Amino acid sequence: MEISAYSPFWLIVVFYLLSGIWEVGRLLRPQGFSKQWADRLPFVAFGLHSLFLLYLASRVENIPVTNLFESVVFLTWCVVAVFNGVEYLYGVPSLGAFLFPLVTVLGFWVLSLGDNLLSAPSNLSKFWLIAHTIPLFMGYAALTLTFVLSLMYLTQQRQLKHKFFGPLLLGLPSLESLDRLMWKTLSFGFPLLTLGLVFGIFWVKYSNILGPQWYMDPKVVMGTVTWLVYAALLHLRIGVTMHGSRVALLNIAGFTLVLFTFLGTFFLGAQHGYKKVSKEDTMIIKGIKE
Asked: Which of 23, 25, 129, 173 could form a disulfide with 177 if both were Cys (CB 3.0 to 4.6 A apart)?
């Protein structure tokens, strides 16, 4: 991995780590961690993240998803952007305490890959890439928030069940509020996921990038399975009016499919997933001339 290009992301991840530590501290010991810093650290982290994303986009002159590193940078930015929207609209207490550790783990994980650059195919149409990627990544981000809210729901439910009347119980929203927000983020994320998949189908049919058996590609298969799981979950929520811990557990199961669809399918040989490239190809991607 090119240190001069990607090293600023270390600083961004450290700010997200500090944000997570401060948010958890605010949740468990509110008197020891000021709200002012709890607001400032995520603001600085997201600002630096946004600038770094613009830098990556200027390098590739497209949506920065040309390799796995860029895709994780973009996905985590979408997650924090949706988080900021939810915070602005609903002011969810302690949401950052559960979200920022997840963002930090994803950031450190992709940085740990070092020079093992995994790149997408070079023949990606700009229009279809944008139309496919933006709604899909924003849908993934909203479903990530659904997952985090589900963890918060199960945590709060456990506090109430065992009568743990401590700072964790007082710092989390009510079960009713969390249940409503799970529904709202799921209702926001699923249409975006659908739109991204539809544009993806048009893309592969238009470009023939995956060949005549495009529907057998592991990423296509897992994307379809993920969509079906969330469609069934929405049906259960609307038609059967399912609420509570069962929905939270299904949301968590659905998120594991999201992670596998996004990160895991290239191990199965997905043709439009991320693949290891040769040293020569890596130098071309980075724009380095010998």
From this structure: 173
